[in-house]
Amino acid sequence: MTQYLRLALAGAMLTLFSGCAGLSTLTSAAAPTDLYLLTPKSTFDPGLPRLRQQIVVTEPTATAAVSNDRITVQPTPFEVRFLPGVRWVDRAPLIVQSLLIESYENSGKVGAVGRSAIGLRADYIIVTDVREFQARVTNPGVADAPLEAHVRINMKVVDDEADRIIASRSFESYQISESDDTSDVVAAFDIALGRVLKDSVEWSIRRMHSNALASENKD
User: Fold this and answer.
1) What pLDDT score was predicted for residue 118?
2) How far is the C-alpha of 112 from the C-alpha of 100, rounded, in Å?
3) φ, ψ dihedrals at 9, nearest 5°
4) Which of 187, 189, 210, 219 is at a distance of 20 to 30 A from 95, taking alpha carbons?
5) What's residue 216's pLDDT?
6) Average pLDDT score over residue span 142-159
7) Which ranges of 48-181 does DSSP label H, i.e. alpha helix?
8) Measured between alpha carbons, how far is 151 from 157 in angstroms, rounded to an integer?
């Protein structure tokens, strides 16, 4: 465990026994020294059906612990802290929205996809809720316990013309960080989010395609 993060997490654990004396150890708004980004998914099942309909991806909802640009760590299941001196390039929900859009585009199976802010007429709307987006201390009782990135997103597919939800599912992934260096923690987030992006994009494309075929057959 790097000395920098060991000291930060040690300060966080200390607050469990000393009230709020060290509460600012991880949560203080120190001047950020590094910004980190994540990547879209670019490899998908080549057998995915092609979708002619247009998709709008709305901004995901999230709790206050997630809806910010801080890299969140949970020293215990009941405590939320932030890595000091580092941030995501944007709020986590906006990162997820952008990467979902890019991932749909990278699939090569979607006619048009964008965010609701650009006024795109939607056949289908992708509504997501970011339920988990943090690194957890896998064993709080062990000093050198590894960190584990945890990503969980609930996705709903809405048929805009029929004004109804046609499918809903949660996608979840965990990835152990190789070390507690920030770059390795971010890499673990990237792997975990990548799995969620791949699974959710493929699942939703199939659901939208099946719904579109059913609607055409009715006509």
Assistant:
1) 65
2) 13
3) -70, -30
4) 210
5) 80
6) 91
7) 92-107
8) 19
- Which tokens hold the place of 71? 């890299």
Distances in Å between the Cα of 167 and the Cα atoms of 126, 155, 213 are 10, 8, 15
- Size (the chain), residues: 219
| Tokens at 94, concatenated | 């906006």
Contact 81, 107 (CB under 8 A): no
Own/partner long-range contacts of 5-10 (Cβ < 8 Å, ≥24 apart): 5/83, 5/180, 5/181, 5/182, 6/143, 6/180, 8/81, 8/83, 8/84, 9/73, 9/75, 9/81, 9/137
- The mean per-residue pLDDT over the stretch 71-86 comes to 90
Q: How many CB atoms lie within 10 A of CB 162?
A: 10
Characterize the bridge pairing of strands 147-159 and 124-137. Answer: antiparallel
Tokens standing for 130?
A: 């970011």
Distance (Å, rounded) from C-alpha 173 to C-alpha 165? 24
| Calpha distance 47→219 (Å, rounded) | 26
- CA distances from residue 148 to 38, 185, 190 in whole angstroms, order as listed: 16, 8, 12
Instruction: Say how far apart CA 29 and CA 199 lie, in whole Å.
Output: 35
Buried b (16+ CB within 10 A) or exposed e, 177-196: bebbebebbbbbbbbbbbbb
Average pLDDT over residues 147-169: 96
pTM value surpassing 0.85 = no
CA separation for the pair 30, 26 (Å, rounded): 9
Strands 81-88 and 51-57: unpaired
Token pair listed for 213: 């075929």
Work out whether strand 70-74 and strand 124-137 pair parallel, antiparallel, or are unpaired: parallel
